[in-house]
Amino acid sequence: MEEVTAPQCLPLVRDESWLALEETAHVGRVRRAATSLAERLGFAANRVAEIGLAATEIGTNLHKHARDGVVLIRSVRGERDAAVEIVAIDRGPGIADLALAWEDGHSTTGTLGVGLGTVARLATSCAMTSRPGAGTALVARFAPVLDWTPEWGDEPAAGLTRPIGGEEMCGDAYAACRTADRMVLMMCDGSGHGPLAAAASDIAVRLFREQPFLPPEQAVARLHAALRGTRGGAVAVADVDLAARTVRFCGLGNIAAAVLADDRKQGMISVPGVAGHQARTIRAFDYQLPDRAVVVLHSDGLTERWGADHGSDLRTDPPLLIAATLLREAGVRKDDACVLVARPA
Q: What would the pLDDT profile of 135-182 be if each residue is shown by its tens digit?
């Protein structure tokens, strides 16, 4: 009898907190946010202290050496496992020699790099991308122990959300599920901002995770029906066939999507409408998926005026690092923002 691979969904992300590094006191705020989250997740006291040290190093680097530095603290949770994740983004000055920057105690002539060896040593996983003059993005995950394999396995997709200024809750949300030969991505941009927009997006995520492998047009139609009585929003589903190397995409409203490969960006088509309120047409379109391609979905909190050469290495950077770089480069609109990146292999 042929073995069937059980569907696997991305872990849920919660407790997001975006913190700007504008003055010395903000470094302490980053440390406290990270250690408080670790304590709530039940981490041992020595691990909490290690996370606090790493968060301090990250915050100090951004405050002293970078411009427009921000840090995201969040939890990543499965049914049993949980981890603290720190994402740091800035707009300069960048690091010329990344390998050298990872060495303990090294300073790249006074630019960002001091203490990054400590962060890498204490983190369960850590990655960074940087371009001189453009900025740096760093992602670090801290599990309860260093030698740790998450229950959800590899993560070929990852996303970020960021609320509009003045709101604590983001109205945008995403989800992704996969089997051995298929990956399906979903995004919802709840109309407006704040709790009511977030409530619509939460319904979309919950419904999608119940039946993630419907054809995209059926999935979007189901979401459209489910969001009646809510604020509604823009929704999109991308079904990636890893064997056929194709993407079938269905979008309703202002969710942008693209396939990135070979220094080219192939946009995908969303039709006008608002899920839960207006959908004259729900239609899916098919696209080729070249080898080593990356699939991106984002809400209209990011401008579409970005290209394949946006500051990260599509061949080697993990999806979350690509998402962080895209958010830095394109997340310039005053709106909730959400970006989801998948590397189908």
A: 899 999 999 998 888 888 888 999 999 999 889 899 999 999 999 899
Task: Please provide the DSSP assignment of 39-67 as one string.
Answer: HHTT--HHHHHHHHHHHHHHHHHHHHH-S
- How far is it, in rounded angstroms, from Cα 208 to Cα 177? 9
Q: How far apart are CA 31 and CA 52, in angstroms?
A: 5
pLDDT number for residue 63: 87
Q: Which 3 state secondary structure label does DSSP give 124? A: coil
DSSP states of 219-270: HHHHHHHHTTTS--EEEEEEEEETTTTEEEEEEESS-EEEEEETTEEEEE-E
Secondary structure class of 21 (helix, strand, coil): coil
Give the residue among 129, 127, 101 at the shortest CA–CA distance from 114: 101
Q: Region 91-97: what's the mean pLDDT?
A: 80
Q: Which of 58, 56, 114 is nearest to 87 (CA)?
A: 58
207 phi-psi bin (left φ>0, alpha ψ -120 to 50, beta other): alpha
Residue-wise pLDDT tens digits, 13-25: 988 899 999 889 9
**Residue 181 neighbours by CB under 8 Å, 6+ apart:** 241, 242, 243
Using only the alpha carbons of the chain, give its radius of gyration: 20
Give 145-150 contacts, CB < 8 A, sequence gap 24+: 145/47, 146/122, 148/81, 148/83, 148/124, 150/11, 150/78, 150/81, 150/83
Q: What is the pLDDT of residue 250?
A: 98
For the question of whether the overall pTM of this predicted structure is more than 0.90, the answer is: yes
Residue 221 identity: A
Pairing of strands 82-89, 70-77: antiparallel
Residues 284, 215 contacting (CB under 8 angstroms): yes
Distance CA 188, CA 163 (A): 14
What DSSP string runs through 82-109?
EEEEEEEE--S---S-HHHHTSTT--BT
Q: 320-329: buried (b, 16+ CB within 10 Å) or exposed (e) per residue?
A: bbbbbbbbbb
